């Protein structure tokens, strides 16, 4: 019986530590960048082309525009992804856009909210693409999960940008 009490106490302490981690580190922020061997105008056009999203965003299925004019500030869309056979929907709102320079969006899902910015700058005829992300869990459990798995989000963004680079550099469509 004494061992059961010790085991339960250890489990309770670990659970409390898990919850505290979400309060201590309630947000995850990271930056990524990549250089693309194409001009800014073409790089921008490829990132805005809905037909090419599945080439660089894993699991991307479709976008449904909810309100506003697509590609403008205030436009709201539901973005559908499939992950391990499960469909996930993320609500996207464009918060700022400067064509051929940057786009900022907020994303809402059941698990977390995210602020995302992608910026493009010309460097000797090439394009430097930079992303900046801040994500926070929507509840106590998801905030705690974010504290432990936040690094995987940056790793996924680096993978996405590598795929975006390949998609842009292999582009043959004339915009």
Automatic annotation (TrEMBL):
| InterPro entries, alphabetized | Polyketide_cyclase/dehydratase (IPR019587), START-like_dom_sf (IPR023393)
What transmembrane ranges does the database entry give?
6-24
Q: Which domain of life is it from?
A: Bacteria
Q: Which UniProt keywords apply?
A: Membrane, Transmembrane, Transmembrane helix
The record's section on Pfam families has: Polyketide_cyc2
Which named protein is this?
A: Polyketide cyclase / dehydrase and lipid transport
Q: What is the lineage of its organism?
A: Bacteria, Pseudomonadati, Bacteroidota, Flavobacteriia, Flavobacteriales
């Amino acid at each position: 019986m004494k061992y059961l009490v010790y085991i339960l106490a250890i489990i309770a302490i670990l659970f409390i530590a898990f919850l505290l981690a979400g309060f201590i580190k309630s947000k995850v922020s990271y930056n990524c960048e990549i250089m693309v061997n194409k001009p800014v105008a073409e790089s921008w056009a490829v990132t805005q082309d809905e037909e090419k999203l599945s080439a660089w965003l894993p699991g991307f299925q479709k976008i449904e525009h909810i309100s506003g004019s697509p590609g403008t500030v205030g436009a709201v869309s539901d973005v559908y992804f499939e992950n391990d056979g499960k469909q996930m929907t993320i609500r996207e709102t464009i918060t700022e856009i400067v064509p051929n320079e940057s786009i900022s969006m907020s994303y809402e899902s059941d698990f977390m909210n995210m602020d995302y910015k992608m910026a493009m700058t010309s460097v000797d005829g090439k394009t430097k693409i930079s992303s900046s992300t801040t994500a926070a869990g929507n509840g106590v459990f998801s905030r705690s999960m974010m504290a432990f798995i936040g690094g995987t989000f940056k790793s996924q963004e680096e993978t996405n940008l590598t795929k975006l680079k390949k998609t842009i550099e292999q582009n043959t469509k004339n915009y």
